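Check this.
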Amino acid sequence: MKLTLDPGAAALLDALHTAGYAAYAVGGCVRDSLLGRTAHDWDLCTSALPQQVMELFGAKQCIPTGLQHGTVTIKYGGQLYETTTFRTEGSYTDGRHPDEVQFVPDVREDLARRDFTINAMAYNEAEGLVDPFGGQADLQNGLLRAVGEPQQRFTEDALRILRLYRFAARFGFALDAATARAARQLAPHLDCISAERIQEELAKLLAAPQPGAYLEPAVLAVVLPELTPESLTAAKPVVDACPAGEENLPVRWAALLGALGEADTRRVLKRLRCSNACIEETAVLVRETAEQGVCGSFLLGHEFELRHPTDASCLEQHSHPAGRCPNSNSLFPPQAAVVAVAGHSIARPTACGSRVPPQRTVLGETPAHAGEVAIRQLLGRYGLCTVERLCALCAALHPQAAPACALAAQRARQLEADGVCCRVSQLAVNGRDLMAAGIPAGPALRRVLEALLDGVIRAEYPNEKPVLLAAAQKISAS
């Protein structure tokens, strides 16, 4: 077995070997290389003691990251390489960190302390792969298994329970039965883990391609006690239907926590020490897809059939004047409001038992089109990124409306690219223009600007300075 080492890691290993020390690349970089993935962090382990590592590479090149645990970070070629002395660990009184470590000469003793077999492999070019616990076979079989006795691994460090589900979700691996059983049994021990570390692991789990199957109820009951088992079950397919990746975390958080409502979602994310930006974005998505949000009106004007997800008896009730099925928490577009978007043929909602007569409208011919207005208002309020995320969440919540959501996102991108007026700052007039026209400064001036923007969005008048100044005088006088 021959792996391609990172050039910097290879150079450091050569230097350690030349100095007479054993040294290996270890952990995630070996795992990812065996999977054919790009390894971003190259960690090294060595028989050299921390002081010997610092003497070999020099104080300017070394950062004493954690000398008490044997770790020195070496700067080389613009990269950082965490280098740790082979060690065994004592007891874990706090359920998170070893009380003491003992340096040892054999890499196999070091690998025995690690969490999962797929992370307990080491490699150098002279010896090849060092794999005493069958990590390579587990990678080939798509299995996540603890090193040694699972109960001991999770008792030592409860954070490994969350790491188990995070790694499994990342790679789509099955869980070894004994490892999964121990994780469920010891899940209550997660109460000793800091909120920051829990949030970090949950975020990585939610960013995985299909995390729903790995949102273990026994674990979520401890780290997210606000979420009922019923809400978790309902949220799993919605989470999976949302786009993956770290950049889409607010969408996944909103899909998971949406049943809590905006206020409780904010409280949960604040407790988990999420960033303010993540909290605000997630709260917006939850609010705008809740009962009083835009999830239904946002889809107005798009072609899709109304289908209630759980209760066929509700189908005929979707013609309710408010556009809401009384037995559902979801919003649906009222029958009379369904028209065309950007020239697309009209939707024909069959769930109501009758069809809307075919029509065709083109934006510009029907300037007050509800879907167009909603998209422009949302763009002005939140920006394109949030609107795209809102479309993605709406599509996950209402799969039957996914094509409509895609059209809405496409239209939002086009409006943004064309510089169509959606914000006060894009109006052909500003506050100075209005004050020069005799409208006094203060809250009234802002109200006039907002009324002008609303009129432009609804195409009641064009975004032209003379027209807007005349309209402003009428608005101010009313």
Summary: The longest helix spans residues 402-418. Residues 343 and 365 are 10 Å apart (CA to CA).
